[in-house]
Amino acid sequence: MKQAAALELLGVLEERQETAEHGWVLDVDGVPREGVLKAAASGLVELAERDERAELSARVGRPVRWAVRLTGQGRDLLLYARSQPAAGGPASPGPEYRLVELMPSQMDVLRVFTGLADRLHVPPAPGLDVRVRAAVPDRVSGRWRLYLTEEQMASVTYGLWLQKMAGSAAEANRFSRDHGIAHTSAT
């Protein structure tokens, strides 16, 4: 089963399961059985056992050939897939965005920085976390490509400055050389 088709199927199952009084998606709910069986083989959904189908049959007043519901893994997959940003950010970023190419060590710093957002006194600029997650690796140059606003770039310099003060200046120095911007601490 293709990934997009599997995610679409799981989304449909989740929607129908939430509206079902009994918590199961039944064979008459318009879901293709083949897709359900493939999802079950992957552990993404659970098929009702014979006893459960008998109870469902009595409830709905007709024979239920199969019934299915999402497993914890299926729900986790949906949550994870939905939290992924669109690859590469905006298709055609506006003039307020600037292409920034970062070394893997710089991206590591930004991931830590954006991950600490709610605990920092000076949090990352709005949307920087989304841009960091949407960064795309360039296999030729070995750098991560992302589009940032000037405010986000200034925020990057702060995150790199934190890394510099914590022990490694290489990432901040490279960013300053490559992009002509550096953080200066307030005195």
Structural class estimated from helices and strands: alpha+beta
Helix share bin:
40-55%
| Mean of pLDDT | 88
Give the radius of gyration: 24 Å
As laid out across the biggest beta sheet, the strand order is: 1-3-2
Give the amount of beta strand, in percent: 5-15%
Q: Report, as a whole number of angstroms, the end-to-end distance.
A: 59 Å
Got a strand count?
6
Note poorly predicted spans: 87-92
Number of DSSP helices? 8
Q: What order do the SSEs take from the amino end to the carboxyl end, as H and E? A: HEHEHEHEHHEEHH
| Most strands sheet | 3 strands, antiparallel
Global shape:
elongated
Secondary structure topology:
Layout: H1 3-19, E1 25-26, H2 33-41, E2 45-47, H3 50-60, E3 67-70, H4 72-83, E4 98-102, H5 104-115, H6 128-134, E5 136-138, E6 143-148, H7 150-166, H8 170-179
Antiparallel strand pairs: 1-3, 2-3, 4-6, 5-6
Structure description:
With about 190 residues, the protein is α+β, with helices and mostly antiparallel strands. The protein has eight helices and six strands. The strands form two sheets. The protein has a three-stranded antiparallel β-sheet with strand order 1-3-2. It has a three-stranded antiparallel β-sheet with strand order 4-6-5. β5 and β6 form a beta hairpin. The radius of gyration is 24 Å and the shape is elongated. About 5% of the residues have low confidence.
